[in-house]
Amino acid sequence: MQEKGPTRRRLAIAGIVVALGALLVLNVQAVGYRRRLAHLRTPDVRLDEPASLAAPASAGIVVADADAVRRLKAGETDAEKSIPSEGGITALAVDAEADRVYVADGDARLYVLDRDLHTLATTTFPGRIVGLATLENGGLAACYGLTGYGPDYFVSILDDPLEGVVPEGFCTDFATRLLTSDGESVFFATANSRVGKLDRQGELQWRKVLMHRPSAMAVSRSGRLAVGDEWGFLMVMDEDGEIVRVHEASRFAITQVAFTTDGDFILAADRRGVVYVQGASGRQLCRLGAREDGGAVTAFLSTATDMCLLSSDGQLERIRVSDAPGLRFAGLLRVLHAAGSVALSALLLVLVIASSTRLTTAAKTLGSCLYAGRRAYLLLLPTFCLLTVFCYYPVLTALTYSFTKFSLASPIEFVGLSNFREMLRDPYVWVGMRNMLIFLVTGLIKTLSVPLLVAELVFWLGGARLRQFFRTAFVVPAVVPGLVVVLLWKMIYNPSIGLINQSLTALGLERYTHAWLAEEGLAIWSIVFAGFPWVNVFAFLILLGGLLNINRNIFEAATIDGITTWGRFRRIDVPLIMPQIKLLIVFVFIGSIQDFTGVLVFTGGGPGISTYVPALQMFFQTAEGANLGYAASIGVFLFVLVLGATVVNLKLIRTQES
């Protein structure tokens, strides 16, 4: 029996060593696998000149810049043709089977070129060409229209582009920027987040509405469509337009999307040049980081086995998806690694507890307590869940966002302490700190003076009915919303028809009239004075409740001892209602730091910035500037102030309870 404890401890320690070793091996293997996947992207050749458009050809690739189109072999120019146009080259497509190159310029002209870039035909379209896509048997789909976001955009299908005739096109009803084809059907995407499919005759097969504006699109030979949008989401749709999967591939706009030749993988690139490899179903497999000196991805180019990408700086890179061992199972391996890490960590925790008698005893005691109160904890579980979702999670989210550059116009970027450094340089925040201190001090005075006086008067009234009447009379105004009170006082301060200036004029004191909310020296004090005589109903009820809770025998004994009214107030009333006073001080601290509605309605922070408070700056950064990261940093700063002030208040004002 004596050997049982030491034996169990030795087994637990041995298990800890084994679990730590397994966890280490698992993470080392995961890191090694991620590094191997990162080397899938390797530089190939650099073009002699950067290109804005590119497409694979039967031998090499075809690229285009502002005014010329070139055919490249091994990165060297093999053929070149100048396209003179004021608007530059707007679209490029290559039909490898027919050995044709299609180029559109800004003057609404379509050039049909042979493999050596000699002109075969030229066709003028009714509008600017924004997209080209090749079809089987030498066909071509062209999207054209007017600039802007009007409805005059069309997709025409040319069975023989050499004829020079533009058939009547299908109206897409909005500005169209993306066009692609699987050889049989044509797919288009509009700037109002619509994606549609046309058959070979130009008839609409389906049209779907997406969550965000599409920014890149590609289709596989099987008709499966991949759409990237400006919010970094990648959407995979089947041939009937049904969404198979939606995945947030990046926090930045997707600029290029492509299927591999066999259709087993989807490549997506964001505006930073980072490439994401997805499975055919849209499940993310791995992430290939951008080159440090590289630019955005201009185009994906499919080859017989691998994929190539062209960067805006002219660098051609090869993505060797065919050589990646286990790439198809990268997503499953990532899930298994996460599950294995969690399981081994839980096992490690259990073994650590089992290795110590004290920890084992504490764990058993905690388990017994939880089991004994299982019904109570079960009933409290929904409350804790709601608190976690609606209270703790937003606080943690705001803390996270405070270290990021986050706005509705751009994705989240980690910036460290930049928001807090900017806050230290923000004059609005520092002026707001001074004003917040004024509101804090005056708020304490108003909350602990008049409400306490009124509570004392009501408490010491002679008759019970009279006390009930005045108690009700002071509480009834609480039914009026606080915003109505603020608007009422704003009318009182009106320099033309306000009660204050009208009264001063009637008394012959015109020289004392002011624009109370429009003068920098008076605006802040006018807001402070609003609400006079400051009978805060909440504070009144709290203080009156404290007085009613005092034992009457204490007052009787004090009367027998001959205590004065002031002595009773100072030595009996205030000490015994100190818990209520402390509670009100905490609420005043929190309200003075967080509240900005009165300032917003009275002056909006003006005149100038004389009545700004930090919470108002946080509101403006959120509502008008959409600078959520900076607003979150101000919120975190205010939270620290509230927390610190509350802790100091609890330390300085201690209640002696008998």
Description:
- Among the domains are: 1-39 and 324-355; 83-209, Methylamine Dehydrogenase, Chain H (7 Propeller), CATH 2.130.10; 427-614 and 641-652, Orthogonal Bundle (MetI-like fold), CATH 1.10.3720.
- A 4-stranded antiparallel beta sheet has the order 1-28-27-26, with no helix packed on it. A 4-stranded antiparallel beta sheet has the order 2-3-4-5, with no helix packed on it. A 4-stranded antiparallel beta sheet has the order 6-7-8-9, with no helix packed on it.
- The mean pLDDT is 85.
- Helix 1 packs antiparallel against helix 2, helix 6 packs antiparallel against helix 15 and helix 15 (578-594) packs antiparallel against helix 18 (628-652).
- The chain is extended.
- It is of the alpha+beta class.
Question: What's this, in brief?
Answer:
The protein is α+β, with helices and mostly antiparallel strands. The longest helix is centred in the first third of the chain and has 35 residues, at 4-38.
CATH C-level class of the domain at 427-614 and 641-652 is Mainly Alpha
Q: Quote the CATH topology of the domain at 427-614 and 641-652.
A: MetI-like fold
Give the terminus-to-terminus CA distance. Answer: 52 Å
CATH architecture of the domain at 427-614 and 641-652: Orthogonal Bundle
The structure class reads alpha+beta
The general outline is extended
Question: What is the CATH H-level superfamily of the domain at 427-614 and 641-652?
Answer: MetI-like
